[in-house]
Specification:
Distance between the termini: 34 Å
Mean pLDDT: 90
Largest sheet: 6 strands, mixed
Strand content: 15-25%
Number of strands: 10
Helix content: 40-55%
Shape: globular
């Protein structure tokens, strides 16, 4: 579990995060949503330690990240897996080599042990046998799955996903969403997803944090979001006519 308490962050006198508090539970898909500039990326960077909040606390399973000694902080950071927006694979390395890279950097093990772990992770993302392919030889969806395999290869307790469906078609996006949710539940990872994708919000949004102008403007789940009485949230999620119709249907059904 990760908890943020009263996080504030400013840049050059401009307040970007204003008193953000939230709990991100293990085994659930926690989504952070909001328009560009709402503070989503800054919040994620504060949680993983890439930025220091001006005030407030970030707790990893009850431990205050900011108050940790340097070595303990490194231990926690090594328990974090990252899935980047563009997958961030090295084109000159094979799929196997890309997934093995964190093991080579942080795990003392034999080559066989590392390869067994790589093959296990590739199997979890349905890429068995793709070891020797290069990123240029596989589809965008497969690249995302390689990125997921690399993110979980060190058996992380925490997984951060930055726009995991960026550049993917709707069908492939659903596959990636389902895979992230499955791994989150099976491995009991604390997963935090930064996304604009409303399909993801409605499909796997077990805990949704909506930021607006640096403030936590709404929190809930996918079952509650369509009937939420929040004008800022409405303007963000009901951009399409289909979703507006769904909102009106749900509200009429509940007599709102």
């Amino acid at each position: 579990m990760i908890e943020v308490q009263n996080i504030h962050k400013s840049f050059n006198g401009t307040l970007v995060l204003n008193d953000i508090s939230a709990v991100f539970e293990a085994g659930k898909t926690n989504l952070v949503i909001g328009i560009s500039g709402s503070g989503k990326t800054v919040l994620i960077k504060c949680i993983v330690g890439l930025l220091q909040p001006d005030s407030g606390r970030v707790l990893f399973n009850g431990e205050d990240f900011r108050a940790m000694e340097r070595n303990r902080k490194k231990e926690v950071q090594r328990q974090i897996g990252m899935l980047f927006q563009g997958s961030a694979l090295f084109d000159s390395l094979t799929v196997e080599e890309n997934v093995m890279l964190p093991l080579n950097m942080f795990r003392h093990a034999t080559k066989k042990e590392k390869l067994d772990r790589v093959n296990f992770c590739l199997d979890r993302v349905n890429l068995s046998g793709a070891n020797k392919k290069f990123p240029g030889e596989i589809s965008g969806g497969m690249k995302k799955r390689v990125g997921i395999a690399r993110a979980i290869v060190l058996d992380p307790k925490y997984l951060f996903c930055d726009e995991p469906n960026s550049g993917l078609d709707p069908k492939t996006s659903i596959v990636i969403d389902d895979l992230i949710k499955e791994l989150t539940e099976d491995l009991q990872i604390t997963t935090i997803i930064n996304t604009h994708d409303m399909n993801s919000v409605m499909g796997i949004g077990e805990n949704i944090l909506f930021l607006h102008k640096g403030v936590k403007a709404w929190e809930g789940n996918s079952g509650e979001i369509l009937t939420a009485q929040n004008p800022d949230l409405d303007s963000f999620i009901f951009a399409s006519e289909f979703l507006r119709d769904a909102r009106d249907y749900m509200r009429n059904k509940k007599g709102l």
